[in-house]
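Handout, page 2. Input:
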Amino acid sequence: MRLELRCLPALALALASCATVPSVADREFRSGDYAAAAAAYEEALRTDPKARDNPALGLRLGLSYARPGTPAHDPVRAAAVLRDLETRFPKTPEARQAALLLPQIDYEADLEGAAAVTAARIAELQQALARSQRETRALDAAVKTETEQVQRLKALLAEREAQLRRVRDELEQLKRIDLERAP
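Output:
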């Protein structure tokens, strides 16, 4: 029994080293780690000639990229992988599944593109609003300054008019005095 227990780690290590890249990718895919699965599937396609001829692997790679809300989410890449699958393996069930998924993925890619354009437009509008708000504050400050200046000028005008009335009154008094002195 002791010999068997000592052999278990060696057996596990031997089995792990025999694990192929596609099986590692499949394990990551089943666990929901789509980013790791996509990386492993891409590696398998680069290095394993048998993997390149496996439509199921291509479908799972496309699904890994198609999964929303994950780090691997890339609908454009998903569509490219699934279109390649349809082209290379047209009569397989995987190609039929890809054909069913592609319109939805294309629609999602279109929506993401539209969302990106909308987000950019929103950012532009927010910048324009911020500029307008700064300009409005500057104009408000200028209006306040001008209003204060107008009030000062009105006060100065009222003071000048009062001085002018006093001078006229004095002039009228002087005229009366002159008229009273006259011959």
